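Question (not urgent): is this output format expected?
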Amino acid sequence: MEKPVALGVDIGGSHITAALVDLESRTIVQNSIERNAIDSQESKEVILKAWSEIITKAFKKSASDVKLIGIAMPGPFDYEQGISLIKDQDKFKALYGVNIKQELSKRLNIDAANIHFINDAAGFLQGEVFGGAGRGNSNVLGLTLGTGLGSAYCEGGIAKDADLWNSPFLNGIAEDYLSTRWFVKRYQQLSNNTVAGVKELTALTATDYSATRVFMEFGYNLAQFLMPVIKKNKSDLVIIGGNISGAFTAFSPELIATLKGNAIDADVKVTKLKEHAALIGAASCCDATFLHENTADSLGNEVKSFVNKG
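Got this back:
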């Protein structure tokens, strides 16, 4: 019997990555990853042509005649209809109001019903729940920490964008304190020295107390941010991804200690799938059995909650 395979696609402001995903083992098919740089300032035709070329190239590595696609896209976006609503950001302006699902269906000669979309932050968490650090957990919170702050929550195995980046926090918004620029700014304040980013700062922790202090403060701040979110969503697991997750061992002791000290029992894990998470999460949107089972579980939980309240 032929293995169920879908194409996972991760689209960002400067790139497109595509890979075949084995929906049975929930892993990337070996040597199937295709990636290319994209100029998001280009015209509609140039962008769609570039996307179609990478998708076509990746599909050539599949033996299956059935073509299923899951695409992780940044918002704002109508994920059900496949229409781009990105307008006031410095990317993909030429695609505003364009039905991407219909355009790709036409260019790739694939039934539009076989093309699915998911928010990029939700795609990361969906991948981790489908085949990564969150597998087997139904109530999970996911954060991608890097140049910006991505967030998603998962109920009953289905991930959704949490859109927490601009939540009021300390003297500004969450992203002011939970992104790369905070590390650079805070280290400069403490040491009068400049550093390129978090990776470079991590290398200094063995000999530079200011660097160590920055990570301790970050772990404490992250815990303060997470506590009300975990309580509100009743999350039993937090998964952290993005470039800053590479420094997890530097900030996690303070993060975990602060959560435990405030009676928050949720586990905290670093991403297992890393840059493959969104690809696997996007492809999982094509797994009808997984989606049906988890949607049913979610509805079941809602019914139980309603009965208990009554």
